[in-house]
Amino acid sequence: MQSFRFSAEPLPQEAEAARAEVRAFLDAELAAGRFIPHRTSWTTFDAGFSRRAAAAGFVGMTMPKAYGGHERSGLARFVVTEEMLAAGAPCGAHWIADRQSGPQILRHGTEEAKRAILPRICRGECAFGIGMSEPGSGSDLAAVRTRAVRDGQEWVIDGSKIWTTNAHQADYLLALVRTGDAGPDRHGGLTQFIVDLAAPGISVRPILDLSGHHEFNEVFFTNVRVPEAMMVGAEGTGWDLVTEELAFERSGPDRFLSDYRLLVEMVGRIGPEPDRFQAVETGRLVAQLAALLGMSASVARLLDRGVVPGVEAALVKDVGNSFEREVPEVARRLLAVEPRLDATGDSYREALGLTTLRAPSFTLRGGTREILRSVIARGLGLR
Question: Which one is the CATH code of 252-379: 3.40.80.10, 1.25.60.10, 1.25.40.20, 1.20.140.10?
């Protein structure tokens, strides 16, 4: 039976130095009034912020210098990510590219794709979307029906993807499609492609959330031609590659810090003299957060060592989702304040309103909790 590979080690000096650097950058951004923490999140698309963050060295941190990166450690990047989330910085224009698409291309892409795309990611000039989920398939990636057929030195893609964050503003989609026979376990015949969202035959349909905000999309492919050089990995290796990619997506602090600003605003609203119930509940949330930060940092260490921590990443996301869903519920119990989206001058009320509407999606994105627990059980040899 496999055991979890978490470890409790102090962060290296390089990581703490990165913390000081990014805090100074974020303080300057806030002082210039370039974003308002309780009104933005890591999915907020702000191309200008991403370019400035990249110019300051906070995008492409782990990438090789040959592709425009900085060759810093995964733990240094972890600390920067943590601070960006805590500040409520609008990182959506570079987030997916920097978190998972870029590393996936670096590991498995062709040299042509690396030269064309990675430097742009490192400059904060290239946004990616995730092309995994499809209508009617839920979290079952083995049910992918979007198909690609080879035509000479190109592939022709037909089908659709759904819940694609910021596809209406992104440059590329890293799409999982079917290129061959599924086989008995349905994991065969899957391949990943880098798809240019400006290519002919692509249409994007918005999906509005409860607040009317446009972040999610459905993407349709009709005879979309993709060059052979934009294939990621070998034909038919898509299942293994997407499993590896999900380790980047599921393990980071964005999977439990989505409502961190609400926690900060709640503590500020309660003030320095909480009653006993407020003190106990707030302390419990802070203890959970500390444990999650330690677990996520441990996964960053594994990634630094070239390990694919699929089980550990799934656990971080599952436990992190429990925390994220609980924060707005605890906030409502501790303070008799009605949430609002337009409560000018009342940052707590606005943060509560935004988080209350978005919280139901926290346990869905990146894989439902049922799927995650299945991954954990299988990885531990329990099923």
Answer: 1.20.140.10
